[in-house]
Specification:
By secondary structure, the chain is an alpha+beta fold. The protein folds into 2 domains: about 190 residues, Rossmann fold (3-Layer(aba) Sandwich); about 80 residues, Uridine Diphospho-n-acetylenolpyruvylglucosamine Reductase, domain 3, CATH 3.30.465. Helix content is about 50%, strand content about 15%. A hairpin with a 6-residue loop joins strand 4 and strand 5. Helix 4 packs across helix 7, helix 4 packs across helix 8 and helix 8 crosses helix 10. The longest helix has 30 residues. The radius of gyration is 23 Å and the shape is elongated.
Length: about 300
């Protein structure tokens, strides 16, 4: 709600055309009706049209409810943006949301990439639509104070109290414990850490791409690097080179885990030949001369 009100304030000076989009997953019918009514009242007061998107509920999502819902929402928002010929989709993630994302990534054992949390801006699917997060530097209490000053309501999702969702557990137990231990500055410190990690990651990606352009031969569905050249690189670079090769050969990194990369590099360091089958049709062949990553024909990574 705060994002909608702030963008409405900027509408004239920045020449913005705004739409508010409410995505209904069908998981909470009664609550969704109440929320939509509140959104419509507030949007009407701000002079912003409201669009609704109904998403088919899944009884048994392939991954977590959180992950499934997020994928559905972003896919729907991208479709709506393309239909409206809108170039930007803005979402209301805050500094606390960023801190939670960093903690979740660290808990999963993520490296620098995951520690970067949510980027302020990124492409939203194919095409020119971008997802932006203009409130990442704002705290919840600041936004609530702003809404009070505008006499606008806000929504509290009842599912946020369900600790079976991992993010809710971090929000309601882990972050409060960290605040008690380190003080209220722990949230902006985590957000700043994410920004530093993103900056480091951007530079590392450029350095890896430069190395790979020199040493890796990549074409559609295949990437090959001389085994001796790979062994001579620092271990941190080796890991990133393997990920780069998989991304180029398979079109993505879906299913690739740290242990896959570690197993490959252990074989390469021992100068042992071998064959590895990885998720989503990705195979790796090691010989005395080269390391080759392939995607099986007809399969997507």
């Amino acid at each position: 709600m705060a994002l909608l009100a702030l963008l409405a304030e900027l509408r004239d000076s920045e020449r913005l055309t705004l739409w508010a989009v409410y995505a209904n997953h069908g998981w909470r019918p009664a609550a969704a009706r109440r929320e939509l009514a509140l959104v419509r009242r507030a949007a009407r007061a701000l002079g912003v049209p409201v669009l609704t998107v109904s998403l088919a509920p899944r009884k048994r999502p392939r991954q977590s409810w959180e992950g499934t819902g997020r994928q559905q929402r972003y896919a729907a928002l991208a479709r709506v943006a393309r239909r409206l010929r809108a170039g930007v989709v803005a979402v209301g993630h805050t500094q606390e949301d960023q801190a939670e994302t960093v903690l979740l990534a660290l808990g999963r054992g993520s490296g620098v990439t995951g520690a970067g949390g949510m980027p302020p801006s990124r492409p939203l699917g194919p095409g020119a639509v971008r997802l932006v997060r203009p409130l990442l530097g704002c705290r919840h209490d600041e936004l609530k104070a702003y809404l009070r000053s505008r006499r606008l309501p806000w929504l509290v999702d009842a599912t946020n109290r369900r600790l079976r969702f991992r993010r809710n557990h971090v929000r309601r137990t882990v972050l409060p414990a960290l605040r008690r231990a380190f003080g209220p500055s722990v949230v902006p410190h985590l957000a700043a850490f994410a920004e530093l990690a993103r900056d480091d990651e951007a530079w590392l990606q450029e350095a890896v791409a430069l190395w790979c352009r020199r040493h890796v031969r990549a074409r559609r569905g295949t990437a090959r690097v001389p085994a001796a050249v790979l062994r001579q690189a620092p271990l941190a670079l080796q890991r990133r080179v393997v990920r780069w090769m998989v991304a180029r050969a398979a079109g993505g990194l879906q299913g690739l885990a740290f242990q896959h990369v570690a197993a490959l590099l252990a074989l390469a360091a021992a100068k042992k030949p071998g064959h590895l089958d990885w998720p989503h049709g990705v195979t790796v062949d090691l010989t005395a001369r080269a390391v080759t990553v392939r995607r099986q024909a007809g399969l997507r990574a």
